[in-house]
Request: fold
Amino acid sequence: MQQTSNQYVQWFRQTSPYINSHRNKTIVVMLPGDCIEQDNFPNIINDLALLNGLGVKLVVVHGARTQIERALQSSKAQSQIYDGVRVTPRENLVDVMKAMGEARFAIEAAFSSGLPESPMYGAKIKVRSGNFVTAMPRGVIDGVDFQLTGKVRSVDSQAIKVLLDEHSLTLVSPLGYSLTGEAFNLSFADVAIHIATAIGADKLIAYNDDGPIIDNTDKQFRELTLLQCERFLLEQHHHNQSNTYFALRACYKACDGGVARAHVVSAQEDGALLKELYTRDGSGTMVYRDSYETIRRARIEDVVGILNLIEPLEQKGILVKRSRERLETEIGLFTVMEKDNLIVGCAALYPIDNAQAGELACVAIQKDYQGGGRAAKLLTHVERQASKLKMKKLYALTTQTAHWFIEQGFTETDADNLPGKRQLLYNLQRLSKVLVKELKN
Ligand SMILES: CC(C)(COP(=O)(O)OP(=O)(O)OC[C@H]1O[C@@H](n2cnc3c(N)ncnc32)[C@H](O)[C@@H]1OP(=O)(O)O)[C@@H](O)C(=O)NCCC(=O)NCCS
Reply:
């Protein structure tokens, strides 16, 4: 029992950096209509309510395809989809609106629940909606008249921001009104993307129930740069019309429009959104904008770039001197951050103590690029490598940067605590501080 509550405390503490970094951030969530009818729906609502409670500003845009199909069937009306978009004849609009109402009321009702001993107890979420989206007809495309299917013309971003600032959860249905006073059926992805870009959202989340986004070896993509995402979508364009494809396409469009990060998360896995936002490893696929900045294993061609980066720091005595030959031999231990074909950062991971532990060394970020969280990103990357190698601890020796390491979760320790062989090589003259961080495997 004691152990369980200790683990809980540990876990809770580990989430605090994520809680702090997401607080007051704006997230637009795409919730497809079919999710509303699945078993995991109450869990999704609980997770969104928790995010709201943690100070995240939320806009939820729901879809209603399942509900519309059902309404059309019961009216014996025809359903026509072209290139993933519904055609909406005037006579179908009442059914479309009814179905949207059904989806939207189900969400509002779920956010209003508050039974004792349920995660919603005491949440008191204020759900607000309004006429935020102005629409215009989609028109005739490839000879198909989309009739009352519209596209987004503009978004009243100011009205949404006012609601978010008063901590209301903004719920948006995929309906828009034209200046002529007509209602138009819109794609919920289109609405979410336009809102996310108009209000300058920090993230877009696309819930998806068609399984993860995988490469051709069936491995899940955890992260995709905008460029990689574009290539992947182009490859899949002709044969993939899955919900996953459309969710990823929405992420791509949102990032292309200026949103820094967009994530596809499972609508069926309990807690997928919390894992994605509040744990290091995440659970879904993230698309991110800073496409020309990548972190990767160093290659032999990077030696010159790394030398250019570290030599000035070696001269100042901040880093230990490494000869070119040594760097060439050890290049496999280095990770680099590359931006526009330039090495802007590096870090090395040396296995010590029979690879039971690792030593993080030679962490450097080029001067012009410092202060942007890049070294912290590199560190996260190296920590993941070390965890994969089943290393239990990560050491760092530094003369001038101890506080930076402490801010990254390291603690100072005595040089005598260094594993045996590394202790022998400890350079007494440098009087480096020894720091250590426990790793989770
Ligand atoms: C330390 C270093 C890697 C940080 O890179 P970075 O990408 O700027 O780091 P981050 O953006 O993640 O963190 C920046 C923060 O660290 C702080 N920081 C930078 N150098 C620091 C130092 N020597 N001691 C304490 N804090 C330091 C910055 O002031 C900044 O804090 P702020 O956000 O409150 O202003 C970079 O400054 C560097 O290359 N320094 C020279 C090499 C070095 O000292 N390497 C470590 C020894 S292995």
Remarks:
- The longest helix spans residues 2-22.
- Residues 294-438 form a domain with the Aminopeptidase fold (CATH 3.40.630.30).
